[in-house]
Design a protein that fits this description.
Strand content: 15-25%
Structural class: alpha+beta
Largest sheet: 2 strands, antiparallel
Region (Disordered): 65-86
Helix content: 25-40%
Protein name: DUF3039 domain-containing protein
Number of helices: 3
Order of helices and strands: HEEHH
């Protein structure tokens, strides 16, 4: 005999107000130097994103995107026009 168990996660900000709303998102925040997670509904997630800026992990190296200069773009355009003329 097989029994299925369903577990529902409820939105923690709504649970404080003694409301049961199913959680579909996770809110991350920093507290006492550690990253914590709270289950939240999509409405609370949007509200949190509007109030606070997202966490950035500074322990990982940040890759800078290379900017292409206008000189390189002009050279690329010149080579395309000479190829099409031939």
């Amino acid at each position: 005999m097989v029994t299925e168990v369903f577990t529902l996660k409820y939105c923690d900000p709504h649970a404080v107000r003694e409301e049961k709303v199913e959680a579909s998102e996770v809110i991350q925040f920093a507290w006492d130097g550690t990253v914590r997670e709270v289950d939240a509904c999509s409405e609370c997630k949007k509200e949190h994103e509007a109030l606070y800026e997202p966490l950035v992990d500074y322990s990982r190296p940040f890759k800078k995107q290379r900017r292409v200069t206008k000189k390189n773009d002009a050279k690329a355009d010149d080579t395309e026009s000479t190829d099409s003329d031939a």
